[in-house]
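**Entry details**
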Amino acid sequence: MTMTRTHILASLVLLVAACANSPAPVPSTAGLQGEARADPAKDLSRFSKAYFASGCFWCVEGVYESVRGVEEAVSGYAGGTKENPTYEEVGTGRTGHAETVEVYYDPAVVSFATLVQVFFDSHDPTVLNGQGPDDGSQYRSIAFFQTPEEESAIRRAIADIEEAKTFSRPVVTEVVPFKKFWPAEEYHQNYVQQNPGAGYVRNVSMPRIEDFKAKQPELLK
């Protein structure tokens, strides 16, 4: 049977549900919202932290956890004003927060500048308020900085991208000082690893992660 463009698009919509609309597992009772979500068995005190938002945090977490020198990545929320936000509240777009990943890394192995490179190589920074099938300000592109040196590294990367004309449109990534990170609910942590058969993971997260790995094999664990 010949499928029209409408039928094809309808099929794709059913196949690939957006991050915000994907069925989520029943939240674990282990831990309350706002507590640290890093593996409690790990001593992360010696690692530096960096924060990036570039669409669905399931994808971003998976990307960073594939990078050599990254010990842990935690999904959560940053960039907004509401304290202790929930996934549902952030999803309304009214909290100001974006889905963000907290990256624990060893600066002796991987530099902040390299993490910024990972950030720009793993999403489209020219898309405003969205990424892939996900739309809304909670999916906007943000590179957070904690020092003047980190801000310079981010702005230098943007200047290099624009000078090289890597994209046909201007970069719209927000470059903002980091203020507060709120860890997401437990069921969002390691979502790709825990839910390999989920439609969104198979059709959005894994292709995005594999695309990054193909671009930067030398950075992988």
In short: The longest helix spans residues 148-164. Residues 1-16, 25-36 have pLDDT under 50 and may be disordered. The chain is about 35% helix and 20% strand. The helical segments are 5-15, 57-65, 87-91, 112-121, 148-164, 191-194, 199-215.
